[in-house]
Specification:
Blueprint: H1 2-96
């Protein structure tokens, strides 16, 4: 009888150990799957970050160019307005005499 109880206990322990090994194998497989997903996501984010940095640099350069163009246009407009104003004054002086 003791032998039967020992065999039953041993069988239960063996079954539990087998379940534990199966759970450990599933956990290891899931960990590998998650690590792969993490690596893929990290590669995607790194690539997107590089793209955004390049795009930011391109847009920054474009903004600087537009600001330069704006200042040049503003200067040309001011110069043109001053010349027009001077021309109007000269015409007014001609008309007065």
């Amino acid at each position: 009888m003791k032998n039967t109880r020992l065999q039953a206990a041993l069988a239960a322990i063996s079954s539990s150990f087998q379940l534990l090994e199966e759970a450990a194998a599933r956990a290891a497989a899931r960990q590998l799957e998650l690590a792969t997903e993490h690596d893929t996501a990290l590669a995607h984010v790194t690539s997107e970050n590089s793209f955004l940095k390049e795009d930011n640099l391109r847009l920054s350069n474009q903004l600087q160019s537009l600001q330069k163009d704006f200042l040049e246009l503003q200067e040309a407009t001011t110069s043109t307005l001053n010349r027009l104003d001077d021309s109007v004054k000269a015409i007014d002086l001609m008309l007065e005499h």
